Amino acid sequence: MTTSFQEVVEQLRALHDLDASIQRLEREIRRGPARLAGLEDQIREIEKKKKLVDDRVLLLRAQIRLRENELRTTELKIERVKTQASQVKTNKEFVAYRAELSNFQGDADRLQGEVLKILDVVEQAEKKVADLDEECVRIQKKIDDAHKVLDDSLQDVKKQRDGLLAERPALREGIPKEPLAIYERIHAGRGDAMALLDGEYCSACMERLTRNDVYAVQNRNRLVQCRGCNRILIANV
């Protein structure tokens, strides 16, 4: 076991610890917007409800227009029958026109009643939309307030991360080229480039090591990589 190799292991471990802290901060930065996902999901659900209600209102208004058109046609028929009834000459014709007029008036009353009922449903639906709009505004305010708090918090986290990134070049200095290249390659591919030795196993993937590799890791006399996950193995000291 050489002192120089012990130093290499310690330098790599220090670099690994720094990278682990950077990764932790970067995960926190990525998780930040996810904290608002629940509120944003609520907004989307409300928008879906509003669309359903709006679609229903459009259908109801179309039904109102149909009945209003039918009502206008019926009212024209009523006026025509009234005009004709005023010109009858026999009681039999008068009775016939009065019966026809009564039927048309019944249709008109029914259509007016249906229009009023549909208008009442439209009014309730529009009130529901207004309530949903208010709920959207309330939730959006929560989102805006949370964004402000989150942005302030993330600024501090980003500042910490940037500070650690600035320290990284200095930690890389002095590490021999070959072990540094191995570390950086694993770090780029897996993020976590080193793993602790757990008895005879790699703590990251639980691959079993040979006895010689276990001794090498414990004695720090050469660089040992896990055959399962390729990470550099270190002893827990």
What letter string, H or E per element, gives the SSE order? HHHHEEHE
State the end-to-end distance. 16 Å
Give the fraction of residues assigned to helices. over 70%
The CATH top-level class label of the largest domain = Mainly Alpha
CATH fold topology of the largest domain: Helix Hairpins
The global form is rod-shaped
- Mean pLDDT over all positions: 90
Can you walk through the features of this model?
The chain is mainly alpha-helical and 237 residues long. It folds into two domains: 1-31 and 176-237, Helix Hairpins; 35-166, Orthogonal Bundle (Helix Hairpins), CATH 1.10.287. It is built from five helices and three strands. The protein has a three-stranded mixed sheet with strand order 2-1-3. The chain is rod-shaped. The chain starts with a helix and ends with a strand.
Present the secondary structure layout.
Layout: H1 3-34, H2 37-85, H3 91-172, H4 177-190, E1 194-198, E2 201-202, H5 211-219, E3 232-234
Parallel strand pairs: 1-3
Antiparallel strand pairs: 1-2
